[in-house]
Amino acid sequence: MLPASTISRFRNAAPFGISIALPILVLVAVTQGGWFLILPPLGTWWLYTALDAITGRYTENADPMIEDADLFWYRLVTMIWFPIQLVMIYGVIWYVTGTEHLSTAEKFGAFFGVGVLSGTVGIVYSHELMHQSNRFERWLGDLLLATVLYSHFRTEHLLVHHPYVGTTRDAVTARYNEGFHRFFIRVLFEAPVSAWRAEKAMLARRGLSAFDRANPFWRYGTLQFAAIILAVWIGGWLGLALFAFQAFVAVWQLELVNYVEHYGLTRKHLGDGKYERVMPHHSWNADHKASNWLLINLQRHSDHHYKPARRFPLLQTYPDNEAPQLPYGYPIMTMAAIVPPIWRRVMNPRVRAWRKQHYPEVTDWSAYKAGTLPPPVVR
After folding, report:
1. Which residues fall within 8 angstroms of residue 341, CB to CB, at 6 or more apart?
2. What is the pTM of this model?
3. Confidence bin at 353 (pLDDT 50/70/90)
4. Domain count along the chain
5. For residues 142-159, b (16+ Cβ closer than 10 Å) or e, as one string?
6. Residue 19 falls within a domain, yes or no?
């Protein structure tokens, strides 16, 4: 167990901060064009996959009782990303809409790279920030989500996904044999509705209308509208199209990660709409060292669901017999998910082995696979 005196050192936090330099790849890509446009995905997905092969798994755990005061450098990494992303998105809109050396296809290629970073880094950081009790950090999370037009994710994640993961009420728990592309379309429609209903129910318990000013959807809409107007003001209709494209790429990556994190894993139905409590074995874990630097330990996902408020440097990893382990980190696993036959060949045997290990008494999984079990009782 690593103590605070070790964790708090700048050199231990520094690898997580390397992502701050990634916008340089976007800068080179947009100024040079051509083959340089592959630099953002090459420097994230592929580079960190290669580094995982070199650095391997990292199974040490920090003392989970370390105070926030000892985590300054880690918190700083997540808090300074919003201004970086803001300048990256709108600065590139300004540049590419005013330059003539890039074709229209190259401009959208450049914004594919922008979306790679606003998704791989921006949404992951917003996820960390939205889980904190500090109001400033939560606002930074909201601002990051507004720049990818996915603000409802905060509500859906906190009020639906965490309480109901592994059940039929959670849209982003991917079902066994459900291909990513079908999952993606389903989630795009179901998650916003689910988030709205969750906020509506919470307001109703307070005796308030769903349209009361206390509903965060007013804030979500205002921030997203401001983000859109800024894109149009800087780059016109082309600027808006480029902005929307990077938002789509970012959301596509988020849902790829959601797909990987819980594919085929379900909580046992106890009857009468009751399910067992969330345990580490209800999330796929990946303690690969380098990709956890990039994704600020998001891959230690089993512990995140077990202790959602725990800050990322303190997330624990578990032995393989307590939490199912992915064969590779998220970068390569999400790429595999894009090709369903490859994904099923890799993951379906692991899901079946997980069932035998944790639920040998369950002989009929058809209702779990079809998603036809009754939804859990709303809390």
Report:
1. none
2. 0.96
3. very high
4. 1
5. bbbbbbbbbbbbbbbbeb
6. yes
